[in-house]
Design brief:
CATH class: Alpha Beta
Number of strands: 6
Number of helices: 3
Distance between the termini: 35 Å
Largest sheet: 6 strands, mixed
Strand order of the largest sheet: 2-1-6-5-4-3
Length: 135
Amino acid sequence: MIQWDAVNQLFAQYAWAQDAADFALLREVFTEDAQFTVEAPGIDTIGPIRGRDAILAFVGETITGQNDQRRHVITNVRFEEEGEDRATATAILTLIVVADGALRVQSTGVYRTTVAFEGGAWRFQRLHLALDLPF
């Protein structure tokens, strides 16, 4: 049975991995067959990016191309069980950027995910991010 804290911790690991550019940790939050999609006004939908390695390549390229410090604040996590080893989860993202001595909210959005128990841990199998502004 999935526990709320397991889903909350998964989102926390995902956010921390991005903010710290910890790609080994980021690898741990996705299933092998994961899919990742990003939507934002004014840009073409990105994805679905299929497979953990492809997702890591995309996120890694995005992170290494940024000249600022990003902070992913993920709140209002809620989930619904779909069985003993699968659930859907949604959460709110507030993306904060620190650059040139200033702090600003870059975007907000909603994560819609499917989490699955794989390899002894809960991981994202599907992750869809609908941003309110481009990132």
